[in-house]
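Co-fold these.
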Amino acid sequence: DAGVIQSPRHEVTEMGQEVTLRCKPISGHDYLFWYRQTMMRGLELLIYFNNNVPIDDSGMPEDRFSAKMPNASFSTLKIQPSEPRDSAVYFCASSLRGLGEQYFGPGTRLTVT
Amino acid sequence: AQRVTQPEKLLSVFKGAPVELKCNYSYSGSPELFWYVQYSRQRLQLLLRHISRESIKGFTADLNKGETSFHLKKPFAQEEDSAMYYCALAMGQGGKLIFGQGTELSVKP
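Predicted complex below.
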């Protein structure tokens, strides 16, 4: 297994544009997490899914952010419209039965100019 | 409120010296704590969890409920230990994790 896969690895976009980040969890894992990492706020949980259903989205900063998981092997995090303060590294992670150990993807470094 | 605090942003030691990375937590329930590590250009990965009570790469961590701490220790640091270390608290079902701000460990030759 290649582990959690994220794409793109780097994204540079202009303010106001739509950004879509993608994640493929480890096969068989039933929990998927999206995190954002910034120097100021560290690693923050944005949202997580169990069996493709969003369980807790209390960390999603505002309505410009949305996340979907249409099937067990794919999830997206969308920002529309993007703003410079959204610049961060976005991580996806998955786990089996939510047992605490999470497997992280390599992250997507987003820069909004 | 639930919180994980890592008071040191940077810890610099010489090779062979003892290392202690501090972690304190605030949680009203029964805590489940982890240490994650991120080596340069690698993914964030689990280092150890308190319930397993094992030593990984020479590191150990003991949960002290009285002091609400979960400090990470290693008696003799190696250069390859240089990395970012994150303490994390799992909350409730689903394993939702709250991370500390992280401590960068730099081990000098």
